[in-house]
Design a protein that fits this description.
By secondary structure, this protein is α/β, with parallel strands linked by helices. The chain folds into two domains: 42 residues, no CATH class; 258 residues, Alpha-Beta Barrel (TIM Barrel). The protein has 13 helices and twelve strands. Strands 5-6-7-8-9-10-11-12 form an eight-stranded parallel β-barrel, surrounded by five helices. A two-stranded antiparallel sheet has the order 1-2. Helix 12 crosses helix 13. It starts with a strand and ends in an 11-residue tail after the last helix.
């Protein structure tokens, strides 16, 4: 029997002669090399691309902006998912790992650059995810404004809020789950004090919310944050909750806004700027629908997690949507 050997020549292999031609060690070594040579390119370990250096290129386009306090923000903001790896992919655990593998340090730097070149000037992330990527971006002349999420530590401590200010945040807010928990326990005082802590450090002070009850309670208590950041999306997607589904939503069905119509009604009368997040139900709703629903429902800004290759299209969609809105809530920011 004849076959090409590993050097491309033909060798006769008959019975025991194979042992003479290739001993055990040689066989293993040869087949390992052959297997490596025939692996798909994507399975090879590739070196980390070099981080971009030098000043940022000039902007390619601009985006409509609004104000929170005295600070101007783009209507479309960048989510921090590219840094944290939070995929919110229901029970598909591998997706978060895939995101982290894709968003290398170099890719994160590229994404921040692309966002700024297309007019996005704000990014939102949890303080404990770090600011190394932002610092690199700022050193290159980037002007990306960091809106920091913070949670309460220990006995309702404010360490994360103080840390965010020290690290360069322009605005800081309690995360939605943290604020929801305080409201459910009737502890509005801690939320109020968080605003004081933030403002004492010359940052814009916000309150996050998943549940509409948090907004209602804060308004009733007379809290005056500089902005709210509240989940908002339609139920116009395949895995949206059905009318007979009750209980805690969002863990498996990509739902973070169980009462969108009521949210729009309540927020209509809220005078603070509103940053809407989860507007695509973690990717379940196409941007052209999700962006329009959010802005026409009253949001002043939308916060969207994006891969680098989605930025240009999402900026284009945002501009098209903003140019043709049917909106009833006044712009509050």
């Amino acid at each position: 029997m004849l076959r090409p050997d590993l050097a491309g020549k033909q060798t006769s292999i008959k019975g025991a002669a194979m042992n003479d031609a290739l001993n055990r060690r040689g066989f293993l070594k040869a087949t390992t090399a052959l297997a490596a040579a025939t692996l798909p390119a994507g399975l090879h370990a590739e070196p980390e691309p070099n981080l971009p250096t030098g000043p940022l290129p000039p902007p390619k386009t601009s985006l409509p902006t609004g104000r929170i306090g005295s600070v101007s923000f783009s209507r479309l903001m960048l989510g921090g998912n590219l840094i944290s790896g939070y995929a919110h992919a229901r029970d598909l655990d591998y997706v978060a790992h895939l995101m982290k593998r894709y968003n290398t340090d170099a890719k994160i730097a590229e994404t921040l650059e692309l966002a700024e070149l297309h007019g996005i000037n704000a990014v939102n992330s949890w303080v404990r995810d770090g600011v190394t990527h932002f610092e690199r971006h700022w050193k290159r002349g980037g002007k990306m404004r960091w809106i920091a999420q913070a949670r309460f530590t220990g006995d309702n401590g404010f360490d994360q809020f103080k840390q965010a200010a020290d690290l360069g945040a322009v605005a800081i807010h309690a995360t939605g789950d943290a604020a929801d928990g305080l409201v459910q326990r009737g502890d509005l005082d801690t939320l109020a004090r968080s605003l004081d802590v933030i403002r004492a450090r010359k940052c814009l002070a916000g309150i996050g919310a998943h549940g509409l009850g948090t907004i209602v309670a804060c308004e009733k208590a007379g809290l005056k944050p500089d902005f709210y950041i509240k989940t908002f999306h339609s139920h116009d997607y395949h895995t949206a909750p059905r009318p007979d589904e009750t209980g805690d939503l969002g863990r498996y069905d990509n739902s973070w806004c169980k009462d969108p119509e009521e949210v729009a009604e309540v927020m209509f009368n809220v005078r603070q700027p509103w940053i809407a997040f989860k507007v695509l139900a973690a990717g379940a709703i196409p941007p052209v629908r999700g962006f329009r629903y959010a802005f026409e429902g009253g949001a002043d800004f939308i916060l969207v997690g994006m891969f680098d290759w989605q930025i240009e299209e999402n900026v284009r969609i945002t501009k098209e949507v903003l140019a043709s809105l049917k909106r009833t809530r006044p712009w509050r920011g």
